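Problem: given the chain below (110 residues), write out its structure.
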Amino acid sequence: MQDSRKPTGKSFTAFSSAAEEAQTKRDKAEAKREEQEWDNEGGHMSSNAGRVIHRPGADLPYVAILTRDGSGCTERSFATMREAEAFIKRNTPVPGRTLSGLYDRDPGES
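Solution.
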């Protein structure tokens, strides 16, 4: 007769092991290093707008398209949409205010 108290395999726990915690920390550090490398792409913001398109079946399916004043568009491919959006954000100016400054008043002021 089999003992029903014997473990049959790996059990589930909500807590991470020390090895899993260490791997997670290494993964986060690697991701941070990659982001820091992205920040130093050189050049200046010569583009005034950007958009992302998806090309199914391509090795790098997300394409960031930057629009420039007085010249054509520039395309660069990425593996994820997040990378493409981050590229556009780093290479285009911050959009201006959409609301008037008249709304920046304390209550009761007219």
